[in-house]
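User: Hey, my collaborator sent me this sequence without any context and asked if I could get a structure. I don't really work with proteins. Can you help?
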Amino acid sequence: MFSIFKRDPIKKLDKLYESKLEEAMHAQRKGDIKSYAMITAEAEKIKVQILELEASAKA
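Assistant: No problem. I've predicted the 3D structure and written it out in structure-token form, which is a compact way to encode the shape of the chain:
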């Protein structure tokens, strides 16, 4: 009934994933490769969560 008020967790995680990738890009451009690697690893963890949610939504 009130499903229009529920937020989609996949959209939220997707937005977070995109922002992490952008943050990683800026770190790489500044020459901070260590931060780039750490932020990219965080982004990959978020991507795994997104894929898990999408898989559970299809089932």
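In plain terms: The chain has a mean pLDDT of 92. You can pass these tokens on to your collaborator as they are.
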